[in-house]
Amino acid sequence: MKVDSTVVVQTVRLDISTRCENDVVDITEEVRNAVSSSSINSGLVCVFVSGSTATITAIEFEAGLIKDFVTTLSRIAPADITYEHDKRWQDGNGRSHVKASLIGPDLVVPLSNGKLELGTWQRIVLVEFDIRPRRRSIVIQIVGE
Ligand code: ZN
Protein backbone atom coordinates (compact mmCIF):
# COMPACT_ATOMS: atom_id res chain seq x y z
CA MET A 1 0.00 0.00 0.00
CA LYS A 2 1.30 3.40 -1.00
CA VAL A 3 1.02 6.10 1.63
CA ASP A 4 2.06 9.09 -0.48
CA SER A 5 -0.61 8.82 -3.16
CA THR A 6 -2.93 11.68 -4.01
CA VAL A 7 -6.65 11.06 -3.94
CA VAL A 8 -8.53 12.46 -6.93
CA VAL A 9 -12.28 13.03 -7.25
CA GLN A 10 -13.91 13.10 -10.69
CA THR A 11 -17.59 13.61 -11.42
CA VAL A 12 -19.53 12.53 -14.50
CA ARG A 13 -23.21 13.34 -15.00
CA LEU A 14 -25.62 11.18 -16.99
CA ASP A 15 -29.13 12.03 -18.14
CA ILE A 16 -31.36 8.99 -18.56
CA SER A 17 -35.01 9.00 -19.66
CA THR A 18 -37.32 6.45 -18.07
CA ARG A 19 -40.49 5.18 -19.76
CA CYS A 20 -42.86 4.35 -16.92
CA GLU A 21 -43.32 3.20 -13.35
CA ASN A 22 -41.08 0.20 -12.56
CA ASP A 23 -38.87 0.78 -15.60
CA VAL A 24 -35.49 -0.84 -14.87
CA VAL A 25 -32.65 0.61 -16.97
CA ASP A 26 -29.25 -1.11 -17.18
CA ILE A 27 -26.64 1.66 -16.87
CA THR A 28 -23.59 -0.58 -16.35
CA GLU A 29 -21.93 0.37 -19.65
CA GLU A 30 -22.50 4.08 -19.02
CA VAL A 31 -20.82 3.73 -15.62
CA ARG A 32 -17.93 1.77 -17.18
CA ASN A 33 -17.52 4.51 -19.80
CA ALA A 34 -17.44 7.15 -17.08
CA VAL A 35 -14.74 5.22 -15.25
CA SER A 36 -12.72 4.73 -18.47
CA SER A 37 -12.90 8.45 -19.23
CA SER A 38 -11.50 9.28 -15.80
CA SER A 39 -7.84 9.17 -14.83
CA ILE A 40 -8.60 7.03 -11.77
CA ASN A 41 -7.47 3.41 -11.71
CA SER A 42 -8.36 2.28 -8.20
CA GLY A 43 -10.82 3.58 -5.65
CA LEU A 44 -14.59 3.80 -5.23
CA VAL A 45 -17.30 4.58 -7.75
CA CYS A 46 -20.45 6.11 -6.30
CA VAL A 47 -23.51 6.12 -8.56
CA PHE A 48 -26.29 8.38 -7.28
CA VAL A 49 -29.66 9.44 -8.67
CA SER A 50 -30.87 12.94 -7.78
CA GLY A 51 -34.53 12.55 -6.96
CA SER A 52 -36.69 10.86 -4.33
CA THR A 53 -38.79 8.55 -6.53
CA ALA A 54 -36.04 6.56 -8.26
CA THR A 55 -33.22 4.34 -7.08
CA ILE A 56 -29.87 2.88 -8.08
CA THR A 57 -29.13 -0.72 -7.22
CA ALA A 58 -27.39 -3.86 -8.50
CA ILE A 59 -29.23 -6.86 -9.87
CA GLU A 60 -28.90 -9.76 -12.26
CA PHE A 61 -30.53 -8.25 -15.35
CA GLU A 62 -32.83 -11.13 -16.19
CA ALA A 63 -36.49 -10.61 -17.12
CA GLY A 64 -37.89 -12.98 -14.48
CA LEU A 65 -35.88 -11.43 -11.67
CA ILE A 66 -36.64 -7.87 -12.81
CA LYS A 67 -40.34 -8.74 -12.55
CA ASP A 68 -39.86 -10.43 -9.15
CA PHE A 69 -38.02 -7.36 -7.86
CA VAL A 70 -40.66 -4.77 -8.82
CA THR A 71 -43.51 -7.12 -7.80
CA THR A 72 -41.99 -7.65 -4.35
CA LEU A 73 -41.75 -3.91 -3.79
CA SER A 74 -45.33 -3.44 -5.02
CA ARG A 75 -46.44 -5.89 -2.32
CA ILE A 76 -44.65 -3.80 0.31
CA ALA A 77 -46.00 -0.48 -1.01
CA PRO A 78 -49.11 -1.32 -3.09
CA ALA A 79 -50.98 1.10 -5.35
CA ASP A 80 -54.39 0.54 -3.76
CA ILE A 81 -53.81 1.84 -0.24
CA THR A 82 -53.92 5.36 1.16
CA TYR A 83 -50.66 7.32 1.49
CA GLU A 84 -50.40 10.41 3.70
CA HIS A 85 -48.08 11.92 1.06
CA ASP A 86 -50.85 11.69 -1.57
CA LYS A 87 -53.43 13.20 0.78
CA ARG A 88 -51.11 16.12 1.41
CA TRP A 89 -49.74 16.73 -2.12
CA GLN A 90 -52.26 15.01 -4.45
CA ASP A 91 -49.42 13.85 -6.71
CA GLY A 92 -50.34 10.17 -6.47
CA ASN A 93 -46.80 8.90 -5.99
CA GLY A 94 -46.71 8.10 -2.28
CA ARG A 95 -45.86 4.49 -3.08
CA SER A 96 -43.03 5.64 -5.37
CA HIS A 97 -41.38 7.59 -2.55
CA VAL A 98 -41.69 4.68 -0.11
CA LYS A 99 -40.12 2.18 -2.55
CA ALA A 100 -37.31 4.56 -3.53
CA SER A 101 -36.44 5.27 0.11
CA LEU A 102 -36.36 1.58 0.97
CA ILE A 103 -33.82 0.81 -1.76
CA GLY A 104 -31.93 4.12 -1.58
CA PRO A 105 -30.56 6.52 -4.18
CA ASP A 106 -26.99 5.25 -4.47
CA LEU A 107 -24.62 2.36 -5.03
CA VAL A 108 -20.89 2.19 -4.34
CA VAL A 109 -18.75 -0.18 -6.40
CA PRO A 110 -15.04 -0.79 -5.71
CA LEU A 111 -12.70 -0.05 -8.62
CA SER A 112 -9.49 -2.10 -8.86
CA ASN A 113 -6.90 -1.75 -11.62
CA GLY A 114 -9.39 0.02 -13.85
CA LYS A 115 -12.13 -2.57 -13.42
CA LEU A 116 -15.40 -2.39 -11.51
CA GLU A 117 -15.56 -5.27 -9.02
CA LEU A 118 -18.95 -6.50 -10.25
CA GLY A 119 -19.92 -10.16 -10.29
CA THR A 120 -20.33 -11.92 -13.64
CA TRP A 121 -24.07 -11.28 -13.86
CA GLN A 122 -24.26 -8.26 -11.61
CA ARG A 123 -25.48 -5.10 -13.36
CA ILE A 124 -25.96 -1.54 -12.19
CA VAL A 125 -29.53 -0.36 -12.74
CA LEU A 126 -31.63 2.76 -12.44
CA VAL A 127 -35.15 1.88 -11.26
CA GLU A 128 -37.99 4.32 -11.90
CA PHE A 129 -40.68 4.21 -9.23
CA ASP A 130 -42.52 7.40 -10.17
CA ILE A 131 -45.93 7.06 -11.82
CA ARG A 132 -44.90 8.86 -15.01
CA PRO A 133 -41.86 8.93 -17.33
CA ARG A 134 -39.04 11.07 -15.95
CA ARG A 135 -35.72 12.50 -17.10
CA ARG A 136 -33.23 11.36 -14.45
CA SER A 137 -29.98 13.02 -13.54
CA ILE A 138 -27.36 10.53 -12.37
CA VAL A 139 -24.13 11.60 -10.73
CA ILE A 140 -21.16 9.24 -10.94
CA GLN A 141 -18.40 10.22 -8.57
CA ILE A 142 -15.11 8.39 -8.84
CA VAL A 143 -12.79 8.75 -5.87
CA GLY A 144 -9.34 7.23 -5.89
CA GLU A 145 -5.92 7.32 -7.45
ZN1 ZN B 1 -44.56 13.01 -4.42
Describe this structure in words.
With 145 residues, the protein is α+β, with helices and mostly antiparallel strands. The protein has one domain: YjbQ-like (Jelly Rolls, Sandwich). The protein has 4 helices and 8 strands, in the order ββαββαααββββ. It has helices spanning 28-37, 63-76, 84-89, 94-103, and strands at 8-17, 24-26, 43-50, 54-60, 106-112, 115-116, 122-128, 135-144. The strands form 2 sheets. It has a 5-stranded antiparallel β-sheet, covered by helices on one side. A 3-stranded antiparallel β-sheet has the order 2-7-4. The protein is elongated, with a radius of gyration of 17 Å. Bound molecules: zinc ion (ZN). The site of zinc ion has 5 residues, from helix 3.
Short description:
The chain has about 140 residues and is of the alpha+beta class.
